[in-house]
Specification:
Length: 118
């Protein structure tokens, strides 16, 4: 009997899916324990060190970083909800020019994809 057959036919596993969904194991673990601060700082280092960010842009970026430290992954649809809209109601689109938005989305995707591969 393969391990996947055990999980699929196990009633407790079905309850687990109902509660947490069928997200990759790495995403699930990160959602429980978050992400190390040093890993988040490394992911955002180039973006922050590029300079010329305004105070509100730095605050947004730090909010994003804090979210990753606490939650480990980020569903990008959450970017258009609080706390990301607390600084600007258009979230990152209202704070950054297009090139910076693309750069931030790539950082977010990189962190999220890394969890999927774990």
């Amino acid at each position: 009997m393969g391990l996947s057959i055990f999980f699929v036919s196990n009633p407790k596993f079905e309850e687990f899916y109902k509660e947490y969904g069928q997200k990759p194991l790495g995403n699930f673990i990160r959602s429980l324990i978050g992400l190390e601060e040093s890993a988040v700082e490394k992911a955002f280092a180039d973006f922050l060190q590029a300079g010329s960010l305004r105070a509100d842009q730095i605050t947004f970026t730090r909010t994003l970083m804090a979210y990753f430290i606490k939650n480990g992954v980020l569903d990008k649809t959450l970017l258009y909800e609080s706390p990301f809209t607390d600084i600007n109601d258009q979230s990152l689109n209202g704070l950054f020019e297009d090139a910076k938005v693309i750069q931030l989305v790539r950082i977010i995707d990189g962190i999220n994809n890394n969890a999927t591969l774990a």
